[in-house]
Amino acid sequence: MPLLSVLFCQRTASGFRSVLLHHARQSLSKSGTDRQLTIVRYNRNARNTRTESFAPRQTVVPTEVQGIVVESGYIHPSTIWRSLLFTTAFTTGSFIGVSIWEYETIRSRAMQALRSKLSINWFKERVKQNRQEMEQWRKDLTGWWNKLSPGERIFAPICALNVIVYGLWRIPSLAPTMVRYFASNPAAKAVCWPMFLSTFSHYSLFHILANMYVLHSFSHAAVATLGREQFLGVYLSAGVIASFASHVFKTLTRQPGLSLGASGAIMGILAYVCNQYPDTQLSILFLPMYTFSAGAAIKVIMGIDLAGVLLGWRIFDHAAHLGGALFGLFWCHFGSQHVWPLREHFIGYWHELRGPPKK
């Protein structure tokens, strides 16, 4: 089992603002200029007196990114129902989607095996193979991909998506769009899709490196146990459920703010692996001489997040972490044994809809 990183970055509202402040100070120190951005906080229901208990209406943050508007103020309870409905629909859709992916993969392999027995199809496959051999770059890419482990094959596209979104954050003109759709905020007008898109969103380099390191460390064991289709369903669902937990906590505590990062989804995978293999020995990054069991590690991590929720710590989005971890525990002890097998009923309907394969 790879090392457990203690540099596990968290999804956080105040942490996000601190990252902006850090990068801005570095930029200002290099350029010698003094540029400031006023992030306007406004209330969607300005006449409601309950909005007075929130943070100040304006917050001045030094940064080079211009035109960002962070929505704040009273969070209407109906937002929770919208979030719950989206979480339920997205989670169900995720597992239906990966079930179709599993079926189509098996169907494709069966058809390839059948066609390889026919001479005319053998000739066509031979011509296709010759064309592929002429494209050296394609051959090299295929060889590299085949050398990857199952866990690395599912990790690579997830990591690539996170890197692409990280690059989009570096484009100043896209900053308002990124804040609107790639940062989860229950007080915003766009509530549902940011719950999903924010799980692929990182603003700082340290954040994305730490999260991807942890995901890479545990993806191999998770994919080996779950399979790539079930792993993807758990990962995507854990991310959205983590966002929903964050929405509930922010609404109850009247603390709206931005949250982003893959930590909630990764916590779901981390909790699953640590409970599936509790006796596996892990160690701290840069301190490999100190080892501890995976079961003890997840208990400590969840304990810290629980304390953060109860004590009102605002450094990290502890509610999102707990939401993702609790879903991982649920899937380890119940979901994989009783929920995942239910896909066979849907696959039967999908098979009838697809009809017999064409020869």
Automatic annotation (TrEMBL):
Its main location: mitochondrion. GO terms for cellular component: mitochondrial inner membrane. It is found in: Mitochondrion inner membrane. Its EC number is 3.4.21.105. It comes from the Eukaryota. Coiled coil: none annotated. It holds the Pfam family Rhomboid. The keyword Ribonucleoprotein does not apply. The chain crosses the membrane at residues 80-101, 154-171, 191-210, 231-249, 255-273, 285-313, 319-336. The keyword Ribosomal protein does not apply. It catalyses: Cleaves type-1 transmembrane domains using a catalytic dyad composed of serine and histidine that are contributed by different transmembrane domains. Keywords: Hydrolase, Membrane, Mitochondrion, Mitochondrion inner membrane, Transit peptide, Transmembrane, Transmembrane helix. GO terms for biological process: signal peptide processing. One of its GO terms (molecular function) is serine-type endopeptidase activity. Residues 192-332 form the Peptidase S54 rhomboid domain. Gene3D superfamilies: Rhomboid-like. It is an enzyme of class 3 (hydrolase). It is a multi-pass membrane protein. PANTHER family: PRESENILIN-ASSOCIATED RHOMBOID-LIKE PROTEIN, MITOCHONDRIAL, RHOMBOID PROTEASE. Belongs to the peptidase S54 family. This is rhomboid protease.
